[in-house]
Write a structure and sequence with these properties.
Elements lengths: L1 E2 L8 E6 L11 E8 L3 E4 L4 E15 L2 E7 L9 E4 L5 E5 L3 E9 L8 E3 L5 E5 L10 E7 L9 E8 L4 E2 L4 E2 L4 E8 L4 E6 L2 E6 L3 E4 L7 E3 L4 E9 L10 E2 L18
Antiparallel strand pairs: 1-19, 2-3, 3-9, 4-8, 5-6, 5-7, 5-8, 5-9, 7-10, 11-12, 12-13, 13-21, 14-20, 15-22, 16-19, 16-21, 17-18, 17-20
Length: 263
């Protein structure tokens, strides 16, 4: 399922996916917060929340935390975000003409102190390098998972896929629900998202839900960089640790493989 979103105004929060949806539930809220210079956004909500800066500059406040975060390019720069529990009030003040923030929420009764995840803390991996004739080389950024946010019900990250390359590859799946939100550079670009046996054409600002252990390989069209935020919701008694690769395609991860499968 592809959800279309057109960024047509600022100074508002626009929800794209809801945690209480009855049809194809992900158990997560996902939306975009757009702020003009000097605009203030305040949030008090009985949910775990993540405020991931996409572009611009803003002051993020929660409890004793007070930090100014700036990001000029989500393609070239690692992310930073504010992560809070259900008890924490949040205040965000835009410091640039336009500030865009991805907002992620879910139910979680666990308590933890508010934290800023900085670009330096982001785990960045160049996956696919040296295999598949470099056709699936991309940059995978993990902001946090169970290793550095053990009380969270979420995993949050980003992927930067160069033009013509594949990502989320080899094809893999997992039981936990996931959301992808896409951007392209230039913005008129496109790509294709696989969900099991279906394929969807993806454009700038599109969002998809990945459910029911569906395999989900992606590919960027030549000429266009494909960026996406990925968010996974841990399931009760079944947290996300790592994906399950489709066994018939695991061979492509071998460093000696070329364009043709070798016996």
């Amino acid at each position: 399922m592809v959800i279309r979103y057109e960024n047509c105004s600022t100074d508002r929060y626009y929800q794209i996916v809801g945690s209480d949806e009855k049809i194809d539930p992900t158990f997560m809220d996902f939306g975009l917060l757009d702020l003009n210079h000097g605009s203030i956004y305040e949030n008090v909500e009985k949910k775990e929340r993540v405020f991931l800066l996409l572009s611009g500059s803003a002051v993020f406040e929660a409890g004793d935390l007070n930090a100014t975060l700036t990001r000029e390019s989500f393609i070239k720069e690692n992310p930073s975000c504010l992560h809070v529990d259900l008890h924490q009030a949040v205040k965000i003040t835009s410091q640039s003409p336009y500030t865009e923030i991805a907002v992620i929420k879910t139910y979680n009764d666990k308590c933890f102190k508010p934290v800023i995840f900085s670009p330096e803390q982001c785990r960045t991996e160049e996956r696919g390098k040296g295999t598949m004739s470099e056709t699936a080389t991309r940059m995978v950024r993990t902001v946090f998972d169970k290793s550095n946010a053990p009380l969270s019900n979420l995993v949050v990250g980003e992927v930067v896929t160069p033009p013509g390359k594949w990502s989320s590859y080899p094809p893999h799946f997992h039981a936990q629900p996931e959301i992808y939100h896409y951007r392209f550079m230039p913005e008129n670009g496109f790509g294709y998202a696989g969900l099991a046996d279906k394929v969807f054409k993806i454009y700038n600002n599109d969002t998809i839900k990945i459910l029911d252990s569906r395999s989900h390989p992606q590919v960027a069209a030549p000429g266009y960089v494909m960026f996406y935020i990925w968010i996974i919701r841990h399931l009760d008694s079944n947290p996300y640790i790592q994906p399950v690769f489709e066994p018939e395609h695991i061979w492509v991860m071998d460093k000696v493989t070329t364009n043709n499968k070798e016996d």
